[in-house]
């Protein structure tokens, strides 16, 4: 494309005369009607192609516009002609510009009324440029050899693995983007500009991050996780709560999805793989960079993804990273215990272990404290994260754990609790009622309190208490969670666990809509 800086005043007759002499006009001056028609033709376009055969071009180039306009100049005869400009007042000859009209690329000058017999009205297929956005549009629809992904989705998967396996080299790729920033606007030559939050500073921050990361093994592609995501996108499953959502989204394809460490990310507006991954690395809109950090989490081993069109942003891509496709072996063993009848006929093996764990805590607190101390490294601010487990959001941080440790180091042992079927039945009533309805707390849907439920089976109960844990799937974790009592400032659960006047205990654990598991402990004396 030729940029004409010097203005030459020519009338239309003068233009024709010059054309017959030279075969082409270098003028960027236009009549009012031609200028207006050219402006209207590309008024809403975001790009044009530029092509000048007499300049030696064999293929057109892509030119993205954020400005376009016409301005008057004197014709030297008390009248005006007009010159056409694009970004930042680049004055152009519209005979070099081609715009899209009904899937064809038409010469803007000829379309607007200029005459030049040496220029083609339409670009030939062989003259069309490589247009990265046009290719991305195709890739969004064409299936790849990595089922069930499209070419775009496969490119995203490969791009994630590229940065994960060689972060230092990827940092160099990011650095190549810096010259194309104008303040916070990214203006690459081959695609439309993007407004960013931090501009080149965001890229510099991502580079600094990558330069500190060691290479890792690539993600293993999961077709099941990808099918689950694509079904979720198709059905537009709405968010409810994390555990219920994980079951609804992925339960058909990933066994017990709520028991696996899963990180999900939804990203809007990107259909070019390097741009999407750059956005994630820069962590625009997410100061903590949670998804970026998950890409470099060695525990995360599998990846699935899916993309679809979006009415507002054009595209939406959903990425899933997971530590596994089935729960860890120890968690699966706990699941089996939940359905295995123990030596006490009214208790599952899991429920029996919760009672045994409770008695171990009560009778050997000085020994039990070691189980709490080993948890210290897994606390980070308000998250508790064990290896290969989903992180758990906590309220008080490590302070509640330290307080529980100090308590165990001073407290005297108390007596063993005896299993009581009546208390297990009252606990079971509450699990069935609360779990199926997705409610929490000590009051049932019928308004019943723990005392009411216990006295249905044991009218002579003189003392009653109840603990409820939501989420933990290991008997020891259930008891530790109740004992630490994070977020319960009167430590009511802890007091129940060490209440010396309780004689009996009953336990029931089962399904809850919003958690992997719900466990109720009922205590009593009669």
Short synopsis of the structure:
Helix content is 37%, strand content 20%.
Oligomeric form:
single chain
Beta-strand segment tally: 22
Q: Enumerate how many helices there are, as a single number.
A: 19
Rg over CA atoms, rounded to whole Å, is 34 Å
Q: How much strand?
A: 15-25%
**Which regions contain 5 or more consecutive residues with pLDDT less than 50?**
2-27
Helix/strand-derived category reads alpha+beta
Give the distance, in angstroms, between the N- and C-terminal Cα atoms: 94 Å
Share of helical residues: 25-40%
Features:
single chain; 526 residues; alpha+beta; 4-stranded antiparallel sheet; 37% helix; 20% strand; elongated; disordered N terminus
What does this structure look like?
Helices cover 37% and strands 20% of the residues. With 526 residues, the protein is an alpha+beta fold. The N and C termini lie far apart (94 Å). Strands 1, 4, 5 and 6 form a four-stranded antiparallel β-sheet that branches. The protein contains 19 helices and 22 strands. A hairpin with a 2-residue loop joins strand 9 and strand 10 (185-186).
